[in-house]
Amino acid sequence: MTIAISARVAELGLTLESAAAPAANYVSFVQDGKLVHISGQISRKGGQPAYLGRLGDNLTEEEGIEAARLSALGILSQIAAATGDRRDRVARVLRLGVFVASTPDFNRQSAVADGASDLMVQVFGDAGRHARSAVGVASLPSGAAVEVEAVISLTQA
């Protein structure tokens, strides 16, 4: 029997919150065949935006890493919603796009993005290893420090 996504997250000492509803005119994820494209997820705690601001300004690199991990938890919530919380349905995390609100002189976006990447590997093992972009941006929705989007490959149902 395969462990549920939420159960694996709990084993890591984390909590998988309910999948966030879209904040505007889009959907949280789109499945096309075996691919699931997940819309950007910002860092949240208790359903509220967390880690607001910019890296290199009012947030440290360590806070950015935690913000990326919380954003990745949002990705995992969307994967759980798309798969009925079945970890065995995830063939591979194909790609993460990580956006980091940061000052022009902050250049550690890749280190911040590791907060999301590391969680994918902790939850899915080798199937969690993925291609990735880590990009610095001027601002993100709700003033969030980090936003993560994903493309996931599923197994047959």
From TrEMBL:
Gene3D superfamilies: RutC-like
Residue stretches spanning the membrane: none
Species whose genome carries this gene: Paraburkholderia caledonica
InterPro entries: Endoribo_LPSP/chorism_mut-like, RutC-like_sf
Protein name: Enamine deaminase RidA (YjgF/YER057c/UK114 family)
Domain Endoribonuclease L-PSP/chorismate mutase-like span(s) in chain numbering: 8-136
Domain of life: Bacteria
